[in-house]
Amino acid sequence: MNDDKINSRRDFVRKVGLGGAFAALGTTSAFSVLSDAKTKKKSTKGVSLNLGLQEGVAPGASLTEKLDFMEANGIFGLEVGGGKLADRVPEIQKALQNRKVKISAICAGFRGWLISSEESERKKCMDTSKEILAAAGALGSYGMILVPGFNGQKPSLPFVEARAILIDQLKELGEFAVKNNTTIILEPLNRREAWFLRQVSDAAAICRDVESPGVTCMGDFWHMTWEEPDDMGAFISGQKYLNHVHMASRKTRNSPGEDEGDNYITGFKALKMINYQHFVSFECGTKGDKKVVIPSALKLLRDQWEMAV
After folding, report:
1. Which of 52, 206, 220, 254 falls 20 to 30 Å from 242 in CA-CA distance?
2. pLDDT in tens, 186-223
3. pLDDT tens for residues 14-39?
4. What's the CA gap between 153 and 174, in Å, rounded?
């Protein structure tokens, strides 16, 4: 999506206001969203910006070096991949002993996809997701990120049937997640990567229909840049279901601040309004030296967090 289209959508939100925007989008009740947000706004002074890094983003040749860098820079959430995670549980548990760093979310790692038209692919996704959820629980992670289906995964079910089957499967996965003291975290992607789930409000609506404390959702500033009319509206639509946030620069998906004009203040205001408690985790590349670029990005984000009033 080009800049003109993005600006046009954001101008629309500014003109009609958040309530009008939600009414036009039609997924969430505008009145209830704004009412809840105003109620929670009273406690925003106590909401902290909890920053995290994906394991691959953190500089260092070993997990120990990565953790040293994170603690030295006040980063206390480590997001690890779900691939072969069960085999890594002892290693990660040992590395985190006597550390301030905790495991935040687990990034995918499952095989198959839940909206496949082939039962074998859906079963594969269910089985591998349960393996990851069990490992996530053992590591104290608050959730495993799950994408119902990517563009390249074919054949998939038609939308209405896909949503119905997805909800049934999420009820089962949600129950399994709760038993393991963790959750499923649905991630909306941009249209270049996924056709089925692209906005936070849609993910929140699925969570609502599943009705399980084990099924939550997230927002990703990168994907939101291309798909959401407004950062504030996106995060507020997540409300109680919002369980994780990904961070990247807004034009090239590198470290925040590496693109001119990177601004997250509106989104940060919303996170404060909904009393968001979990991590904002870097999922991005870097143009420059990580040991220089990431501390600079951290300062930018902390400064913008303070400006988000």
Report:
1. 254
2. 999 999 999 999 999 999 999 999 999 999 999 999 99
3. 433 333 333 333 333 332 333 343 43
4. 23
What is the three-state SS of the chain? CCHHHHHHHHHHHHHHHHHHHHHHHCCCCHHHHHHHHHHHHHHHHHCCCEEEEECCCCCCCCHHHHHHHHHHCCCCEEEEECCCHHHHHHHHHHHCCCCCCEEEEEECCCCCCCCECCHHHHHHHHHHHHHHHHHHHHCCCCEEEECCCCCCCCCECCHHHHHHHHHHHHHHHHHHHHHCCCCEEECCCCCCCCCCCCCHHHHHHHHHHHCCCCEEEEEEHHHHHHHCCCHHHHHHHHHHHEEEEEECCCCCCCCCCCCCCCCCHHHHHHHHHCCCCCEEEECCCCCCCHHHHHHHHHHHHHHHHHHCC
Evaluate whether 186 touches 214 at the Cβ level (below 8 Å): no
> Rounded to two decimals, what is the model's pTM?
0.87
End-to-end CA, the chain: 29
pLDDT over 70 percentage in the chain: 85
With CA atoms as reference, report the closest residue to 231 among 180, 176, 268, 278. Answer: 268
